[in-house]
Design goal:
Length: 301
């Protein structure tokens, strides 16, 4: 075995870990693959014999590459917030295998990807490396060019954003979460009776202009009528089942809700008002400016 072959074999042994780091850093399969490729190129140009801890070296390099990509992404103004939020799922990252993307998103958590996407690059790196991969702050500090204490503060700020500011007591949250889970399960399954079971008979559903279907009313009242309409529409839309893969319960402005975030890009928020063990009101938000103002938190962060 040549030295090149040996190095390539060691790199492949670390590829899974590098992909896990890069995907959490970037939230994109394509960009994560690009970061891994760049990491390999840097390794192949290095004196591998001088590297004592190859796994740690590769983690540091892929983190640096991802940080550069995040900073470049932040500085670019090639697309507006509206384009990022409202772009149809089918048109985004067309070259990515949808199933692979969905599996990776499931493994990380849709809500977490949304929150990570809102963090500053250095905050995201500090949180991902320390909280998710146990990298010491001393090593993180070298990557971001700050002191270990500053790196600790970056991770702390990111952690608070991830956890959100929940306003619902724990006992009530557990009951409400079960209700929200049942709502989402019924919507995914196209189960009219299942939806009706968790809705107040006189439920009020409001949808903003960006989220309303052409020609449909912006407001609907009544559990049975709305449930039938929602299920019928979902069955008639080809991309509905795929989109539902990217729906997840989360905190929205401190209250339990559901987010729809294909590839970690927030597209819809469903905010609930719950009374007497039923969902009494649903607000569906799709307007890009409003979505940007909603504080998303991760349940069980």
């Amino acid at each position: 075995m040549t030295g090149y072959d040996w190095l390539a074999e060691r790199f492949e042994e670390n590829r899974g870990h590098l992909r896990a780091v890069a995907y959490r850093m970037l939230g994109s399969v394509n960009e994560a693959d690009d970061a891994i490729q760049e990491t390999w190129l840097r390794l192949s140009r290095s004196d591998a014999s001088a590297i004592e801890n190859l796994g740690g070296w590769l983690t540091t390099v892929v983190a640096r590459v991802c940080l550069d990509m995040l900073r470049s992404r932040t500085s670019r103004r090639e697309e507006s917030i509206d384009e990022r939020v409202s772009e149809p799922v089918a048109n985004r990252q067309a070259s990515t295998d949808p199933e692979r993307e969905a599996l990776l998103a499931d493994s990380v958590g849709i809500a977490l990807l949304v929150v990570l996407d809102r963090l500053a690059p250095a905050e995201r790196l500090a949180f991902v490396l320390h909280d998710m991969f146990d990298v010491p702050f001393e090593e993180i500090a070298e990557i971001v060019g700050r002191s270990p204490e500053a790196a600790r503060q970056l991770a702390s700020r990111a952690r608070r954003r991830v956890q959100g500011a929940g306003s619902v007591p724990e006992t009530a949250r557990a009951q409400q979460r079960a209700l929200v889970n049942a709502f989402l399960a019924a919507l995914r399954a196209g189960d009219v009776e299942g939806l009706i079971a968790v809705l107040d008979p006189d439920v009020l559903v409001r949808v903003d202009e960006a989220g309303a279907r052409p020609g449909s009313p912006r407001e609907a009242r009544g559990a049975r009528a709305w449930a039938k309409g929602a299920v019928a529409w979902g069955k008639g839309v080809v991309a509905f089942a795929q989109a539902m893969r990217f729906a997840q319960p989360a905190l929205a402005d401190g209250e339990l809700g559901i987010i729809l975030a294909p590839h970690g890009h927030l597209q819809r928020v469903l905010k609930f008002a719950i009374a007497n063990g039923k969902i009494a009101q649903v607000e569906i938000i799709a307007d890009a400016a409003r979505l940007a103002q909603i504080e998303i938190g991760v349940l069980d962060a």
